[in-house]
Amino acid sequence: MEPIRRRAARLVVLDPDDRVMLFRVKDPRDGRYFWLTPGGGVNDGETLEDGARRELFEETGLRDVELSQALWQGRRRFLFQGREYDQDETFFLVRADAFVADVTGGEDYEQGMEHRWWRLEELEATEETVFPGGLSGLVRDILREGVPGEPSQIVG
User: For the whole model, what pTM was predicted?
Assistant: First the structure.
């Protein structure tokens, strides 16, 4: 079966203490767990920014946020729910006060997702799977150098 090609908008949500919000997702088909940033597929006719805002609202309840320009872009192939995806991802930065995510607007599999705020040191120390790989280093670069003028390329 041919992989599903899609565009995705993902969000690096940082609180005032520079902690990153991540969601723990379980693939219902094979039981694997992994952590990832909020975001997902962009609908036809939707801009990346509009898709990012919609996904953020559906997955966290946050609305009316200010997005940075694109931070990073990458392409990732992965299996989820028994289907293969070939996804072009664009990441944006959002600053927000710490909050408890309201996932009631998301997909069925998202309804019970665990979420938490991670300190960068915790991300560096975890043995759990986190997407994108090297997230703590990418965030440290943003904190040190600011949002890049052009999005940089990252690998899954």
Answer: 0.90
